[in-house]
Amino acid sequence: MDKKTFYITTPIYYPSAKLHIGHAYCTTIADAIARFKRLAGYDVFFLTGSDEHGQKIQRKAEEEGIQPIEYVDRIVAGFQNLWRRLNISNDDFIRTTEPRHQRVVQEIFKRIYEKGDIYKGEYKGLYCTPCESYWLERQLVDGKCPDCGRPVEEVAEEAYFFKLSKYADRLLQHIQDHPEFIQPVSRRNEMINFIKQGLEDLCISRTSFNWGIPVPMDPKHVIYVWFDALTNYLTPIGFLDDPEKFARFWPADLHLVGKEIVRFHTIIWPIILMALDLPLPKKVYGHGWLIVDGDKMSKSKGNVVDPIALIDEFGPDAIRYFLLREINLGQDGNFSRDALIGRINADLANDLGNLLHRTLNMIGKFQQGVVRAPSGQSPLDAALITDAMATVEKFTAGMENMELSPTIKLIWAFIGRANKYIDETAPWALAKDPDQRQALANVLYNLAESLRIISVLIAPFMPATAPKIWKQLGLPTDFSAVQLQDIETWGGMPVNLPIGTPEQLFPRIEIEAPHEVPTAALKPDKLPAEPVKTAEEKEITIEDFGKIHLRVVKILSAECVPKTEKLLKLTVDLGNEHREIVSGIAQHYDPADLVGKNVVMVINLKPAKIRGILSHGMVLAASQADDLKLVSINMPVGSQVK
Ligand code: MSP
């Protein structure tokens, strides 16, 4: 049987400037959906591109003293580079300056003209060049463009018109009969109200500039840029040259667009299609806008965020994860660097990174790097498995409903669940007891299988990370061939194969001063809000240093602090007394391995209550990325360190 198809598009972007993080947001959403659909077995066609004609582009090129085509070639190369760097899996990239597209636009214009739905008249009106939009006097806000607030220009010229008015009732009926056509519902209501006010025929040609596709029978006119742009969706799927392909992919399943261009996609575009006797797209989804630190991005404010710089710094998956996790699809959302770093550290380095790191370390240490066959099930095992399978089911339903952020949250809830399972089953304790070998094998199998499933679940959002996890688990098959059905039943993790080499997925981003050790971060009061100075700036005197009493102490016992993931309670011998301290090292040490270690401790630190335990002192640790080691030393207990 033929595979089900799924045709998804992004808007085609104006090459009037470099793309910013807001544009990357839209394309990333589309990419995650496209990747999910491929995983679910669909034959996907994912299209993006560039909208290269129009007066604004012509002016930009003139300002630089170059030809428009030279100007767009340069900017569009930047778009394509960005999509490569972000791992965008588009199947085609349409440029409106390509001959294949010009042919389609002219053919469509001709067909509609011959049908009588395009006619010649005179245009007098108001035009917003930056938005490439015509407005009526009554639509202006304070005499300015209602979309961007900039001045409009009066234009009067001979022009071709498209009979939108003729189709208004049919369009309204379609919108009313197909509740899924315009989403979210708030946008649908806006459009219904807009159409009910009445549609004027649309001017679809200009003679005041020439950077555009000529009207076929009257080449002194160029075709209005939105008429040119919207038809891009038909070009690459074989509208003129491959009827079989066209029948497979049209109508589009989803046009994903920003909220301010829903109007073009749900009024002008469907009416062009009606005039061509083509079926309408199944869904137009208007997503919200990304603002930066609470403000709209603009050159004048100097707050335009360059996605390439972010990718250079944090890698593509961290950016993708943040955009898709942090913002609810239909609503506006905020981007901030602090929030991004917060997510990287908490969700990626900690939750996901630690789960992988702990699991692989234990398989290495307790089972010579081999996952063994499970047999039998404890109640804890059964609960984990049930949770895994429920997560896969909810993932599929969530993605089908375009609930990207809630879906990511539920995957991370499962990651948290698996981390907790490690604490609950304490594999390091099982490893000490030869009678518990099978129980240990079961726990480690369940963790490896959970990670196998997680790697597939995160693949639409984090396509670079998913195969890395797959490889580290030692899975022999090619990740690109993985399908959703491979994780729909528990137990796909092969046994008796060596795991791969453990590698860190996401280094922790240090925002504290380099000398701050994680144990110090346990201070009950939060770190001061002012910027942390560098070590050089904060010089101290020898007297300052003398205030810190460091001593070699022995760890007598170590145990997890209940209901925490990071804390251990240590009892230490100072030589002349025993003390209790709380240390944030649980994710780096098995408690049992600490007993008997001689480590360095600050002994005159003011005591503080942490989770109800009076912690009196602090052990020193060295850390880098997500690696951490206590400063341990082979010197007698009680030795002074200075
Ligand atoms: N060329 C037209 C689209 C034609 S589609 C047939 C256009 N181009 S654009 O470059 O101005 O915008 C492209 C998309 O980027 C729009 O969907 C717009 O909403 C989106 N975004 C631009 N800034 C954005 C944010 N700050 N946040 C999210 N999306 C943003 O319109």
Structural descriptors:
single chain, alpha/beta, Isoleucyl-tRNA Synthetase, Domain 1, six-stranded parallel beta sheet, six-stranded antiparallel beta sheet, 19 helices, binds 5'-O-[(L-methionyl)-sulphamoyl]adenosine
Descriptive notes:
- With 642 residues, the protein is of the alpha/beta class.
- Among the domains are: 338-487, Orthogonal Bundle (Isoleucyl-tRNA Synthetase, Domain 1), CATH 1.10.730.10; 542-641, Nucleic acid-binding proteins (OB fold (Dihydrolipoamide Acetyltransferase, E2P), Beta Barrel).
- Helix content is 40%, strand content 19%.
- The protein is built from 19 helices and 25 strands.
- The strands form seven sheets. The chain has a six-stranded parallel β-sheet, with helices on both faces. Strands 16, 17, 18, 19, 22 and 25 form a six-stranded antiparallel β-sheet that branches.
- The longest helix has 31 residues, at 337-367.
- The chain starts with a strand and ends with a strand.
- Mean pLDDT is 92; it is low at 513-537.
- 5'-O-[(L-methionyl)-sulphamoyl]adenosine binds at residues 11-14, 22-23, 25-26, 51, 229-230, 232, 257-258, 260-261, 289-290, 297.
